[in-house]
Amino acid sequence: MHTLADLAQSLNRSAVYLRGLQTRFALPVLQGGSYSDAYAAFLRTVVRVRILSVSESALVRLWELEKKLLTLLNVDSTGSATWFLDACGQTSHRARRLLLSNYDLGVALPSRMLQPSLNFRATLPELFAGNEMGEDALRMLESYLETLATIHREVNNELPQLRATVRHARALFGATASGERSIRSKR
């Protein structure tokens, strides 16, 4: 378990910045050292994708789509306040996982093979099915995939600049592949 200060230090961001992320992504604010490794993995993903020049508004939109999709698929089976973060940090089956929540959908994305009627929750179902209320998991997945494709294009456009920046840092500061120590020792 981690404190917010631990997370701030490990991500090289201020606690104020992380509080802002918690607000904008509507994440629960936990007390003391009660931030899980999964919570830390989510924040790490957001920070790293932001470094790739993906706008925060695009990430917030993707996050909202992921949470809505997971809700439509009845994924909340634990009742945990952080149920939508619990898969963060998992590394198996990357092609089957959503980008931010890292939830494994069980099929490679993009896919039209989701079974929207599966219920992972042990509680009573809603009075009306989601599609009867105008919410359809496949339509939500389509919207998610469109937003994700835009983010992938942005990242692919930024990668050459990032690689050039790393080479430039190595040339300027003598950084090694493992990096940080050489740069920090020259400060």
Please describe the structure with a list of short key phrases separated by commas or semicolons:
mainly alpha; globular; about 190 residues; 6 helices
Model description:
By secondary structure, the chain is mostly helical. It has one domain (about 5-185). It is about 50% helix and about 0% strand. It has helices spanning about 5-10, 15-25, 35-50, 55-70, 135-175, 180-185. α4 (about 55-70) packs antiparallel against α5. The radius of gyration is 19 Å and the shape is globular. Mean pLDDT is about 80; it is low at about 110-130.
Number of helices: 6
Kindly, what is the distance between the CA atoms of the first and last residues, rounded to a whole number of angstroms?
31 Å
Structural class: mainly alpha
Q: What is the radius of gyration computed over CA atoms, rounded to a whole number of angstroms?
A: 19 Å
| Helix/strand order | HHHHHH
Overall form: globular
**Number of domains as seen in the coordinates:** 1
The number of strands is 0
Biggest sheet layout: none
Any low-confidence stretches, pLDDT <50, length ≥5? 112-128
The helix content is 40-55%
How much strand?
under 5%
What is the residue-averaged pLDDT?
Answer: 82
How would you briefly describe this protein structure?
It contains six helices and no strands. The protein has 187 residues and is mostly helical.
